[in-house]
Structure formats: structure tokens, C-alpha cells
């Protein structure tokens, strides 16, 4: 079990394709669908956390991926290290925080669109204990894609670590801000917006759903918010439109693609699958429409299954899904 800082090993810097920073935990998902947790008898245990799932999804596309985060010094933390290695995600920047338990998250599954989440991140989630002085800034600057989430801005010292990591990037390479707004992690939307406004100018790609965009950029319609963000310097803004599909905005084009039809089993994790697919597409240099369609298909595959990390598709699986249409 790693219990020290979250720097590299022996001073060696690895040039990762995708380096993410943010939430990690254990997802406890019911084996029974359409049943309240009050009545569920059996559960499955999975690697979880948005930034971590994105790293897993990128690794499934053959990308060298790592995640910067922290766990508890407990068996659940050890399970997360095992799971990351099993998925081919480098865990050198995952360290333990003595005295804090590894977070667990329960969900209920009521298809097609009701998936309540219950976060147990008390007294504080270890991933919010990431500290600037422990970061490997050389690796952060060297990564081809660096991905951070808004959750990392919700408390100190993770807030300072996230902002300093973004500043160290200097908008180099592909720097993604995942809006990932979770109301239970904030005192108000206004508080979240104030910190998102600090991070937005440091990102080259910004991605979120309609509600997250409305939180990030006042009450402006998400498509207008995306355009404003691009006008202020981001190279790409992506709005997930739910049943309408997804919208991508750059300084020269606006593309909206329809969703990929799927019988939804569990909508949780679809956005993270989209994120990993987005990283892969950006690294491959694909055009905007192909990128959005590929991400949509990856998300649809995960939405059709119960688990998140375990369900992340390979490139071949996504291509087959697209070929079905």
C-alpha cells in the first residue's frame, strides 16, 4: 500500500497519453434492478470515481493512462490499486491518507432515467486531500491529455492542487475541465460557479451536461455558454444533451449529433465512457463530428450495462456499435 506523497517513483517522469486528477472510490451497485436499497440483498463492488473511470476508459482504447488521486489506508483502498492495475492504469500517483476511509458510493437502478446516488465521503474524502507540494508537475506538463474535474475544486487542499496543476500546464497540450457538478459537494451553485470561473481560462477543452453548463456559466443556455467559453479562449466546448445527443462548439464550427439508441440499464458511467473516448479521439486527431459520434457510442455501451469501470468498451467494441446503425 502506498502511504507517501503523490509524486513519481524515483524521479522518473513518464509521458502519459492521458493523466487524470480527481475522484476515486468504490461503487457498490445492487444486483437487483428496479429495487429500492431498502430491499436489495446483494451488491457488486467496482472501481469508481469520475476521473478514475475516464482513465480506465482511455486505457481500454490502448492509451497510456494514469490517475492522480488518494484513497484511505484500508482494504478498499488496496482493492482500488488492484483494480487500476488490472485495467492497465498506472497507479503511481495514488496514495493513501491515514485516518480517512476510502469513499463508497451506493446507487439505485430504476431504468431508464432514475439512478439515485448516495455518496459516503465522510468525514472527508481522501481525494480532496491532494496537495500542491506533492504533485509531479513535470508529469502533468508532459501528459498529452490532462483531465481534471470540478469536484476537485470543492474543498482545500484539492482546490489549490487542481488550480496549480492547471496553471502548470499553461494550456499546453489538451487540458480538459470536466464540469462534473455534484450539488452535494458544494454549499451552493454560486460557490461552484465562482471556482469554475477560475479554472475555465486554464482549460483548452470543457465538457459537461446541460445542468453543469448552466452552473458553470450563470444561467445562460448551455449552447450559448459553450460559445462564450470558446470565445474566451477554449478550443472546444462540449454539451451533453441527454436524449438529444451531444453538441460540440469550436471557434470555426458547431456540430450536433444524435444519440445512439440503447436500452438503458444504468445511466451512471456513460459520461465517463464518453470522456475516455473523447481523449482517444483528440489524441487521434479526428474531426469533431467523428469524435462526438464515437463518444456517444461509447457512452451508450456503458449505459446498457450495470457497472461503470468494468463496462468501459474497447475501440473495436465502439466501432461495432457504430456499425450497427
Characterize the structure shown:
- With 325 residues, the protein is of the alpha/beta class.
- The chain has one domain (18-323): UDP-N-acetylmuramoyl-L-alanine:D-glutamate ligase (3-Layer(aba) Sandwich).
- 34% of the residues lie in helices and 20% in strands.
- It contains ten helices and 14 strands.
- The protein has helices at 50-60, 75-86, 137-142, 158-169, 189-199, 210-216, 222-231, 270-284, 288-303, 315-323; strands at residues 18-21, 25-30, 43-48, 65-72, 89-90, 94-97, 104-107, 117-120, 145-149, 174-178, 205-209, 236-240, 246-249, 254-257.
- Strands 1, 4, 5, 6, 9, 10, 11, 12, 13 and 14 form a ten-stranded mixed β-sheet that branches. Strands 3-2-7-8 form a four-stranded mixed β-sheet.
Give a quick rundown of the structure.
The chain is α/β, with parallel strands linked by helices and 325 residues long. It has helices at residues 50-60, 75-86, 137-142, 158-169, 189-199, 210-216, 222-231, 270-284, 288-303, 315-323; strands at 18-21, 25-30, 43-48, 65-72, 89-90, 94-97, 104-107, 117-120, 145-149, 174-178, 205-209, 236-240, 246-249, 254-257.
Amino acid at each position: 500500500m502506498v502511504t507517501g506523497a503523490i509524486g513519481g517513483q524515483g524521479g522518473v517522469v513518464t509521458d502519459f497519453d492521458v493523466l487524470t486528477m480527481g475522484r476515486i472510490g468504490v461503487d457498490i451497485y445492487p444486483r437487483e434492478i428496479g429495487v429500492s436499497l431498502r430491499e436489495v440483498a446483494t451488491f457488486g463492488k467496482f472501481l469508481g470515481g469520475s476521473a478514475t473511470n475516464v482513465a480506465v476508459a482511455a486505457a481500454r482504447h490502448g492509451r497510456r493512462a494514469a490517475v492522480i488521486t488518494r484513497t484511505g489506508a484500508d482494504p478498499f483502498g488496496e482493492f482500488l490499486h488492484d483494480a487500476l492495475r488490472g485495467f492497465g492504469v498506472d497507479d503511481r500517483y495514488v496514495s493513501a491518507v491515514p485516518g480517512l476511509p476510502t469513499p463508497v458510493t451506493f446507487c439505485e437502478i430504476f431504468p431508464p432515467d432514475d439512478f439515485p446516488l448516495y455518496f459516503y465521503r465522510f468525514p472527508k474524502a481522501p481525494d480532496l486531500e491532494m496537495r500542491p507540494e506533492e504533485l509531479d508537475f513535470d508529469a502533468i506538463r508532459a501528459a498529452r491529455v490532462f483531465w481534471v474535474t470540478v469536484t476537485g475544486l470543492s474543498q482545500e487542499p484539492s482546490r489549490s492542487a487542481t488550480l496549480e496543476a492547471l496553471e502548470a500546464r499553461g494550456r499546453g497540450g489538451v487540458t480538459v475541465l470536466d464540469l462534473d457538478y455534484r450539488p452535494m459537494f458544494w454549499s451552493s451553485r454560486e460557490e461552484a460557479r465562482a471556482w469554475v470561473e477560475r479554472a475555465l481560462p486554464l482549460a483548452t477543452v470543457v465538457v459537461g451536461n446541460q445542468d453543469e453548463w448552466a452552473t458553470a456559466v450563470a444561467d445562460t443556455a448551455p449552447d450559448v455558454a459553450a460559445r462564450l467559453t470558446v470565445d474566451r479562449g477554449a478550443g472546444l466546448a462540449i454539451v451533453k444533451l441527454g436524449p438529444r445527443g451531444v453538441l460540440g462548439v469550436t471557434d470555426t464550427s458547431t456540430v450536433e449529433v444524435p444519440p445512439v439508441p440503447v436500452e438503458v440499464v444504468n445511466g451512471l458511467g456513460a459520461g465517463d465512457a464518453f470522456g475516455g473516448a473523447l481523449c482517444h479521439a483528440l489524441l487521434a486527431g479526428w474531426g469533431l463530428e467523428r469524435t462526438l459520434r464515437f463518444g456517444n457510442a461509447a457512452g451508450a455501451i456503458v449505459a446498457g450495462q450495470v457497472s461503470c469501470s468494468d463496462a468501459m468498451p474497447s475501440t473495436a467494441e465502439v466501432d461495432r456499435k457504430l456499425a450497427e446503425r
